[in-house]
Amino acid sequence: MSVSLESIEGGIAILKIDRPQVRNALDWDAMYTFRDCIESAHSMSDLRAFIVSGSNETFIAGGDLKALHRFTSEEDGVRLSREMTLTLEMLEALPCPTIAAINGPARGGGAEICLACDLRIISTNADIGFVQIKLGLVPGWGAGQRLLHLVGYSLALEWLSTGRILSAEEALAFGLVNTLTPPGQALSTAIDLAQQVASNPAPAVRAIKRILRAGVYLPPSTAASYEGAEFPPLWAAEEHIQAVQRFLDNKTQ
């Protein structure tokens, strides 16, 4: 399949785009399968981390222009925007941390998919380009607001209005990505990170994601109340009580 979902040990799932003939660009069928994979991930009760990656040395080149250019009406634009906007909102809404393993160029819609993930690992031979302006477009899948939240108004305006392509080193310097890896190691590094996340208590990790996302989109006082509400049930949970007991037992040995 051109878009597949694989579960690996430890509650980690990997969504992979494999359309090398078009640099992993998405046509309608690939978009629908992408959405189906995200829906399947939502039904995984033991999911602790979720990775998005591309095949070979490309992440995702965005929309498959050759396949999509036959659909040029405004109604087609609505369909294209709505389909992937809803899909990326579902990706964001996964309760566990999500990781983009950027193993090669991420352009246009591919850059948008990167930003919908919580964490980003990029290889040194990769780059991120918000190149929609070169086709007379704005981001159609929600990246404008996500980029604004990540880097602020001025940089978001500059990058979106110029179509500037950011090298892996620039993406790291500007805080767009978390980690830089050698070529060919983005996915393995993402799996290592996912395993670190998955090794910690899932209820606490999910609570951390909830409180931080509240801080992104809600007023500070409201977000603070969300954070305060998450702490007491975790404090009283058996997992916390046992962890503290193990700590105390180790201290007495």
Provide a compact summary of the structure:
With about 250 residues, the protein is α/β, with parallel strands linked by helices. Helices cover about 50% and strands about 15% of the residues.
Structural overview:
- The chain has helices at 28-42, 65-68, 74-92, 109-116, 143-151, 153-162, 168-173, 186-198, 202-217, 220-236, 238-252, and strands at residues 3-8, 12-17, 49-54, 98-102, 106-107, 119-123, 127-129, 165-167, 179-181.
- It has 253 residues and is α/β, with parallel strands linked by helices.
- It has two domains: 3-198, 2-enoyl-CoA Hydratase, Chain A, domain 1 (Alpha-Beta Complex), CATH 3.90.226; 202-252, Lyase 2-enoyl-coa Hydratase, Chain  A, domain 2, CATH 1.10.12.
- Strands 1-2-3-4-6-9 form a six-stranded mixed beta sheet, sandwiched between helices.
- Helix 1 (28-42) packs parallel to helix 3, helix 5 packs across helix 6 (153-162) and helix 9 runs antiparallel to helix 10.
- 37% of the residues are buried.
- The model has no long low-confidence stretch (mean pLDDT 95).
